[in-house]
Every structure is written in structure tokens, then in C-alpha cells.
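Sample 3 of the quickstart, ligand zinc ion:
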Amino acid sequence: MKYTTVIRTIDSFEVVQNAILRLTVDNFSQVKSREQLIDEHKRLDNICDKKKYVVHNINKQENLTLNIQLRISISNLKVNNVPTGRFLLCRVISKFVKLFALLALVEDPEGNVERLALYNWTKEGQSNIKSIDQLFLSIGTLLVIKNISYEVATSNITIIRSNNPDDVIVVDHNNKLFDDVKWSTNEKKVEIKNADDFRRCGNDYFASSNYIAAIDKYSNGIKLEPQNVTLLNNRAEAYLRLYQFHNAFKDTEIALMYDPNNLKAAYRKGKALCGLKHYKDATNTLQNLYQRMKGNTSIKQIMKHAEMLSYENKNGKYDYLRIIDEFHERSKIKKDSKGNDVWIYETGPRLDHAEFLNDNIQIDLVEGKGRGWIAKCDIPEYTLLMVSKAFKVVFSNEVFGTMISNTSNDKGASSCAEELTTCITRKLFEEPYYCPEVYQLYNGLNLSRNEKIEIIRKNSIHIELIIQALMHNNIGLNYDEFNLKTEITGLGLWTLPSFFNHACIDENVYNFFLGDLLFIRTNRPISKGEELIINYRNATTFSYEERLSYLKCINIDCQCRMCKLERSESQEIKLRMAQLLKAYHESIYPKVSKPHSVEPSHIKELEYLIAELRSLRKEHPDLGFNTIELSNTLAFAYLKIGNNKKALSILKEVYDLYKTFRVSEIRIIILDIIIINSKLKLFEEAKKWFDIMLKILVEPIMGKLEDDKPEWRKEALRLTEKIHPQMNSIAETLNIV
Ligand SMILES: [Zn+2]
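Result:
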């Protein structure tokens, strides 16, 4: 089944198959032994599709004739290349499992092992159906496969792909054609017998950071001895390393049931609770543990960390300066041996800070919009409403080439979307505990209440729901707002913030990203019962057409003032506005922006143009965003002919008209006012505007500045030093602080 999302078509079956492959594969980059690959493949057994299908006829050719010279070895296959005219001779060495394709491991005579994916072998049907079991192309079957391709399925997982069942020929045992071919491998079996063998084997994998393999071994041991606390503890730690906090938590709970005083289990439980965002419980668990283990520095450290998380979560108070530093530290990138970008800090800029939710807001039904966030009481300006940690975020440099997009060079939003879908599907496979969090989101599918309840109750993978929920709720990362000096882009899912509805202007909350944390504050005073509204696509940056096509994809019929106005404007007015703006850019701007003198007649021309643009929207003077830039140019033209007063009054007029919209153009206007005032040695006036600018930059992050306290400017400048250092240079020239 294919789904068209906002940006691309996603094949849902491939997404699930990729997610499952990643789930069962240990280390992506490592060269693996035959045994390791077989182990990985066995894990698919738990997740594969057990339904019965109509299976394509197996192609046996008794009188097979082939030119043996055209045989290709697995080691000679090249990714994304079809070796025309060649065939692969291979032997099946594992059971076939059904995901989207039929998957098994095969070896060639040289002993190379690879995954084989047979596509188009099955279809759903009523009669003549069978299951894909041991008997289907059983272990030891010799196959000749023509027209294969070699592909990257996902991450660095390669597969040999065959699309046509007629290309797969089972070689009869009586066939003499390959009699002279020597097979280099003999299956060796490492016999593992008891739980302790599994523990040791798991520990070896753990030591080499092979956590998926380690979990597999520990799980085998736990099957033999369900009360083995050491195995449970070890598996919990391996889960923690993979950020599977719920799985880790479950293991520590069982371990503590059998051995209530087990210190390791308590320690790991504390860590798992932090990851599960149960900050208070985590703090209690770790404080108790520390009481019993006074002086243990690593327990003390994690306890302090849990206390910090609890504090942030309870009070909504964050150390922004520190978090910005952490962001910079963790988003550093280096090149690996193959020249690819990798994080210096293993997990990239995913920041370990707590979530926060203001008690004074709630999700409720909003007429004509579905659900939305509503204020339960009056809320002051710049109040922190929410801090949300990404359910999952994909940074653009983490996108691998996959079978669907097939382009590791395409690091744009579309491949991020595909990667995010695969990652979230994988996460839900690993920990079904998180299914309700995704399934409760708006998905545009019009499921009945009962259907929805049933899906959530089952807690199983529902790929259509995942894809649709992501399409409607994913949020693109944007660090531009605060000049965080990073090239990183990406896409993520933040579950609670996705309940904020959109408006192109007049939004009353303000959002910004630090790493994978999304902070949301009010940007003006809010009254009780008012809906809290965010901005997905800004009316000053995106044209009406751009906004409309985006919003249509996610089922939003925007009723903001700007959309209403633009809908009502006649084609004639739209055309005239476009003409005027074109005239400005092509003819007037080059004339009035000359470095030295300006002809008064050109100034007149520009003034006439601005006046006409404004008259076209005379009913809504405050929505004439398209004149901001023109007015700024006009002010500078007056400055050049020595009329400073006129220049300042133009800029102030623009500021007064558009200050409530907080668009980035306004910041430039204020900056110009500061610069002109200080040039004119009007320092008091310059300082006044400097303070206005400082607040615009700092309050959305730190909250309302207490400007009756003498220290406020110093505090604000500590922040701008990190995000807008030019403010600190201006402060110096103006002798502020
Ligand atoms: Zn709108």
C-alpha cells in the first residue's frame, strides 16, 4: 500500500520491513560472521507474518543449462547495480520468513553470506494457501537466480533482491551442472546449554557494544531461568543503552521482585524511570539507593541529575544558558573514515532535560477544528506553557539511503520523513507501550471511536495510522530564530505540541527548539477560555499559495485574518500588488539604494509606490506586511539626503504598525532605529530602543524580564552573547552595562 504524504509517496510495506530489519540487526557498520547473521535472521521469526498465502509455483528445471562462466559471487555484487546476463548460484542457509518480501540467508560457494529478498512470491487468497515454513525452499536448497539486484534495504543493511519469481530456479540434486563447484563452508554449531553460557555469551556481545545481540542471548537465558536476577539486570542495562526505557523498567521490576535489595536493579530502575519521564519516582528510587550506598559517586551523580529533572518538570525553570551550551557541544560533527558526517557526541543534540506542562492549559474540543489547547485561566505574557522532548527526531545527517528513496544524497525533508516513519515504527515494535501516544494523534482517517479504542487496546503496529499521524503532526526543526549557528535541520514528532492549532498570523504562543526540546510560551496576555494558537507557516515568509497548498495537505482550512483577506482579494488587486512589488525590485530599489546620493525624484517614486500598495489594503493597514521592506529602503534614502528626522519617523511608524507580529523584519527596523540614533548622538533614545530589542530577543526564551531589577540587562546580555552577539557589541558602543 502506498501513501502520499505532504512531501512524498511512502510504501508502507517497505517501511515496516525496514523497521523490522533494523530491529533485529545488531551493529549496522560491522562486518559479520555467518553465525551472527544467522542469529539476526532468527530474530525475524518472532515478528514475521504468520498468515497463509497463495505462493508462486517453485520453478524447477530438470534440464538446466547455464554457462558456468556467468556465475557471479556475492563478493562481486555492487550496490544499486544489476549484473546483466549473470546469475547467482547460492545455497539457502536459513528458514525463509515473510515480511513484505520473503527473506532468508544464502551463501555462495566462496562462503559469502547475504540476505536474499524474494519479492512478488505471495498474494492473499482464499484457496490453495500455505504458510511460509521450514518446508518452503528449505535449508540446503540450491538456487540459481537471474536478474538480481543488490540494494541497501535500510541503514547499512544490504540485500540481494529478486523481483520476479520466474528468475528463481531450484537446482535439482541430480543436476550435474554444478558438480565441480566446491562449497567452502561447513556449518559449525556452537552449543549453548545453560543460562550461564547465555550470560557469558551475552556479556561478550555487550562488551563489544552489540546490545541487540546481547539482549537476544540474555533473553534465551531468562527463558531457561526466569528468576535469574543477574540476567535480568544485564538485559535491563542493554535495554538502557538502546534507550528502550520501558523494557529496561520491566526487567528491573522483575529483578527487584525476586531480590528486593538488589542495588544494581534499583540503580537501573532509577535510570529507566528518568527515561520514562517519571521524574519523581526516579528521584525517590535513587535517593533511597544513595541512602544505602553513601559515598558512591556514580549513584550521587545520577541522583543529582534526577533531582534536576524533577525540579525542571515541577517548576518549569530551566537553565537556558547551560542548555544552549549543551546544544552546541552535542551538535558537533566530525567525519568518519568513509567521509560521512557523524556526531562527536554519540546521540547528537538530544538533550537530557525534563518535560514540563503548565497546569493552566488543557486539551479540549474547539469548534470547527477538532481538539486544541485552551487556557483554563488568564495567563500572563511570556509564560512557559510546555516543554516537550521529541517522541522521536531525525536530524538530516542521520538519514541513510534506503530502498524507498534510494538516495543517500537526498538529505532533505522528504528523506527525513521516511526515516522518521521507519524509526517510529521500529520504536513501537520495540516498545508497544508507546503505541497509544502515537495512535491518539489526529490522523485524518475518520476512524470511529470504537475502532480507535480497539486499535489502542491491541497496542500493535498499525502502519497506516503511523504514517497518517506523522503526516499530520510532524514538525520541521528550525534553529534559525535564535541564531544558534548550526546547519542542522531535521524532522520530529512532539506529541503534546501537535495539539496546538495553527494560524498564519495572530498566533498567541511562541515556539523554539533547543536540540530535541521544544519550548512553548505565550507571546501576549491570554484570557481564560481562549484557544492557544501556534504558527506552522508564517504569512510574512510564505505566500498565500504556499500556505494554502501546505495546509490543504493536513486538512486545515485556515480562518486567520490574513487568509480571509487574501481569499477575498480580487485577482485584479493581486495582480496589481505583484506588479508594484516587481517595479520596486527591478527599477526603484537599484536607484534608491545607490551608496551615496539619491535623486529626490526617485524618493518620490518610492513614496508613491508604497502609498499605492497601502491603498490596496486600506481596510487592513496592519496587514500590509509587503510594505515593511520598502519603508525601510525609503528611510535609508532620506538618511542619505540628510533628512534624519524623516528617516526615523518612517521607521517608527512601521514599528508601531507591525510590532505585535514580531516578524523578523521588525527586528531589522529596530536595529536601524538604534543605529541612526547613535549616529545622531541621541544616546538616551538609542538606549531606549536597545532595551526594546533586547526584550524581543530574550523574553521568548527566558520569560518576562523583571526590568525593575537593576540586574536584568546583564542577565539578558549573557543570553544574547550566545545567540545574538551583535547585541553585546552594540551595548559596548552605547556604554550599556
Ligand atoms: Zn491563515
